[in-house]
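Customer escalation, tier 2.

The customer says the design service returned an amino acid string that "doesn't look like it belongs to this structure." They asked us to rerun it and document both sides in this ticket. The original structure tokens are below, unchanged.
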């Protein structure tokens, strides 16, 4: 009799522990923001992400960097990816999303938030991300003229000791075309969670607006977590 009582108490304790852990996870998931960083080639996505990481300690996942890492590995898959990137087109979403998903899974336990830089690049990428990974809290769209974007990329290429394969005039034109063909549909689809930011300004002025938007998301997240 005493033994059965003891077992019941142990079972109850285990159930309570499980509930507490589930609650902790639900809170953590509700608190961690996911932010998409959108904009054409050279608009300043990477530059703003570096500043966000410095201020908020978020995990920066650039789809372009993840793909370039794969190319640098010298694998057969990397060679195929390189060909698509050199053409200025889009790599298949299966490839990009699985690289992103793996990176998110690896960082999940310790991350304060995710910046998904250069994703989605077409509407279906966004839809699949939200189905397979998690809903995005905010999309920051850095709006910039094509002339400015070309100038910025050319300046970056001239200043850098390691030039990117796709930073040449022909590929830049193709990247711009890909961007032009897909962006309106993304902005229409995600209009309620998108903030368009004029990226033709000084880096720090742009960042002030970025900070306001992120602070707003963090505040909402904290309120939601408190209700869990
Ligand atoms: P990716 O690597 O994402 O390249 P991108 O979108 O073309 O953009 P960049 O990285 O060139 O520019 P950025 O916006 O980060 O600007 P940055 O901060 O460096 O993608 C490469 C390729 O991978 C794609 O073409 C595609 O093939 C493939 N790919 C990637 N994602 C994919 C996806 N989701 N699906 C399928 N395929 C995918 O700034 C540029 C320069 O400007 C720097 O020198 C910077 O110092 C300067 N600068 C920045 N801001 C300012 C400012 N406000 N004023 C003055 N100068 C500034
Ligand atoms: Mg970049």
């Amino acid at each position: 009799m005493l033994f059965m009582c003891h077992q019941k108490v142990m079972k109850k304790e285990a159930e309570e522990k499980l509930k507490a852990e589930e609650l902790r996870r639900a809170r953590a998931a509700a608190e961690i923001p996911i932010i998409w960083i959108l904009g054409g080639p050279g608009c300043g996505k990477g530059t703003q992400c570096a500043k966000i990481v410095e201020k908020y300690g978020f995990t920066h996942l650039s789809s372009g960097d993840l793909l370039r890492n794969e190319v640098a590995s010298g694998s057969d898959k990397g060679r195929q990816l390189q060909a698509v990137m050199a053409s200025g087109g889009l790599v298949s979403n299966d490839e990009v999303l699985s690289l992103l998903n793996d990176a998110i899974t690896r960082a999940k336990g310790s991350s304060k938030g995710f910046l998904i830089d250069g994703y989605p690049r077409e509407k279906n990428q966004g839809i699949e991300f939200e189905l397979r990974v998690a809903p995005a809290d905010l999309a920051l769209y850095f709006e910039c003229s094509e002339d400015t974007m070309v100038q910025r990329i050319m300046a970056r290429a001239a200043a850098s000791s390691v030039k990117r394969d796709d930073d040449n005039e022909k590929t830049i034109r193709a990247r711009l075309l890909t961007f032009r063909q897909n962006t309106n549909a993304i902005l229409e689809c995600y209009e309620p969670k998108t903030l368009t930011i004029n990226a033709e300004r000084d880096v720090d002025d742009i960042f002030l607006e970025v900070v306001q938007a992120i602070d707003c998301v963090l505040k909402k997240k904290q309120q939601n977590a408190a209700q869990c």
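Tier 2 assessment: The sequence is consistent with the input. The CA atoms of residues 61 and 126 lie 15 Å apart. The chain has a mean pLDDT of 92. Sent an explanation to the customer and offered a walkthrough call.
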